[in-house]
Amino acid sequence: MSKPLSVEGRIGGELKTLLGRINGFYAFEASLHVFPVDSAGPSTDLEEWNAPQLWRDACDGMTEGFFFFFFFAEDIFGGQFAIKDEVIHSFDPETGESSPVAESLEGWAAEILSDYEFLTGYPVAHEWQALNGVIEDGSRLIPKCPFVLGGEFSTGNMYVLDSVKAMRLRGDLAVQLRDLPDGATVRFKIVD
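Below the sequence we write its predicted structure tokens.
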């Protein structure tokens, strides 16, 4: 790790140790992506991924949390894993909601290993890639009909999109939905 990693705290130290050994990686047929500190190719590095203007600004404050979020990994659908107040959380880009996963990086890894099919989206990633080929670095599977609007976790509801574009698109959706009551009727319309 030649670039300094600007994340503090106990879990930040654990992440620095991990990324000092391996500079980011993909696992479970690319269904889990841990961002690198230094990017040697098309992959986005951690500093760039956490920059507000890359995608976080599209979430209109929902990525700020109680103190801050430091996003370090993502599932196949672009669901994020982040450090927030010394706990690792999952962050849903379609709703802007987060939920605790583990209190350490080792605990997070144990959770991933014990339920990787659900936490990474592996079955859909595996099936989609068997039918369509490898998902390129810097891309994720995105639902044609968003999950929050009833879209299915199936290959027929998926397409590949650049990770940044996907996060901006879904951040915009989360902002539009955040003040609506449960069960409200919505019309999903993508506007450039």
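Residues 59 and 171 are 4 Å apart (CA to CA).
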